Amino acid sequence: MINSKLYLVGVEVKSEELMFDAEPCKLCKRMIINAGIVKVITYGKKQKIKIIDVEREWVREKMGEVKKVKGKWIVLKKVLC
Asked: How far apart are CA 41 and CA 3, in angstroms?
């Protein structure tokens, strides 16, 4: 799944309506990162398509300055919380 895209759609169980601004939980985000998926595409607000750049928005946000070496993420500078 390296360099692939994931299309994410959430459906409300009771009303069966589409959910907007759906985002995966922390565990699912980690699995998406580990699978090598580069973009997650979902519905944003007002039914506009939202494209999430996994490396820029999830990896660097949580890990700090990183670089990919032989398919693995190497942390160059950690984020201090």
From this structure: 14
